[in-house]
Structure formats: structure tokens, C-alpha cells
Amino acid sequence: MSLFVVLDGVDGSGKSTQAARLHAAFGAEAVRDGRPAPVLLREPGTTPVGERIRALLLDPALAIGAHAEALLFAAARREALERVVAPALAAGRDVVCDRFHPSTFAYQGVAGEVGEDRVLALLHVWAGAPAPDLELVLDVDPRAAAGRRGRAVDRIELKGLGFQEAVARGYRRYVERTPRAVLIDGAQSIEGVGAAVLRHIAAARARASEVKLGH
After folding, report:
1. Can you give the residue range of the structural domain that contains 105?
2. What sign has the CA pseudo-torsion 13, 70, 112, 171?
């Protein structure tokens, strides 16, 4: 009963920290239960193709429109799903992904004005399977997140506070539209956010067990 879990949120929300913590927790469970080790991905990235796409998307010297961004993210995600996620789940390994569909919806669909439905349709067709069991979105005020993050360095971070505020609204909208997505208060301590993450993981494990048992 492996799980595919996404951690997402605005830049500086703490999602990467929580993804690493969850990966470690899954690793401890795997050792205890004699299961294969979990996998941690970053999006875009992880695969050779994904890492090259990531370099393009974050390069501050390039001007890339939101529509092209959405297509590039979908391409990187398709590669990661085929090359890494699907084989890992088939082998019984838990998968933790740092960013996924919520980011594309929020950054390109809402803040980039590509459109909610257009982005969701793109992701459904080109990066719809395997689908995450759970998408955890850390909700943090963009001003506070910017303070945590420090100086903006990549092309998307450099779009400024107004853009990040639109992104935050996009994340909340994604959760409203997506049953498997959950909003977590990211203003808590690292330990508090981590505890909330683990509570949702336990609930997801229970649901998976019920499905497997046919309940």
C-alpha cells in the first residue's frame, strides 16, 4: 500500500523542508516494516530531461510566457511519472514529490492567467497518471514566505510580491477544486506543520487500507 504524496506551496512556504521530513519518516517506516525505501522527487527535475527543463524555466536571462511554462512543466512531469513514479509505486515504494499539479495551477493557471480549466485539462491529459493519493498545500502569507526565502534568485521568484500573492490565491483555489488536496497552516513551527502532515498521511493510509480490503 505505497503512497504518492505531494508537498506544495509558495516559494518559502517550507514545502521542501516538509518533503524531506516526510521522506525520512517514510524511510523509517520502510526499515521497520521491511519495505523498499521511499523515493523523493523535486518538480520540475529528478530525471535528466526534467533537470534540463528546470534550468530553462528558472533561468533569469530567459523570457518565457505562462503558456509555454505550463507546457514545459507538463513535459517534465510526464517524464518523472513514467521514469520514476510509476516504477516506484509498482515496487511498493512510497513517493514524496516536492511540487506537482498545484504549482502549475497556481503559478501558470491563476497568476499567469492561462486559465484554471485549461491548465487542469493539460495536466489531466499529459500528466494525469499515476495520480497522487494526497496533495498537501502549505498555506503561508507571501510576505512571510519571502522573508523566509531570502533574496529572490530565479526567474519565477523575481516576478515579485504581487505575483506571489496571486499564486497563494491560486493554491487555495486548487484545494477548493481538488478532493485529494488539503490546505495546511504553514505559519506553524516546522514541528507543528510536520505533525499535521503526518496526521493526513495516517488518514490516507487508512483510506488505502479500506480500499484494498474492499470496504
Report:
1. 4-213
2. negative
Write the DSSP symbol of residue 160: -
Contact between residue 168 and residue 214 where contact means Cβ atoms under 8 Å apart: no
In whole angstroms, what separates CA 79 from the centre of its chain? 15
Does the pTM of the predicted model rise above 0.90? yes
**Cell 516494516 identifies what position?**
33
Where do the H-state alpha helices sit in 81-137?
A: 86-90, 101-104, 116-127
Supply the Cα-derived Rg of the chain in whole angstroms: 17
Q: Is 10 exposed, middle or buried (0-12, 13-18, 19+ CB in 10 A)?
A: buried
CATH value at residue 199? 3.40.50.300
- Return the closest-CA partner of residue 137 out of 176, 171, 178, 95: 171
pLDDT digits (tens, 9 = 90+) for 152-201: 789 998 999 999 999 999 999 999 999 999 999 999 999 999 999 999 99
Cβ-proximal residues to 142 (8 Å cutoff; 6+ apart), any chain: 10, 161, 164, 165, 167, 168
pLDDT of residue 213: 62
Q: Are 40 and 23 in contact (CB under 8 A)?
A: yes
- Number of structural domains (the chain) is 1
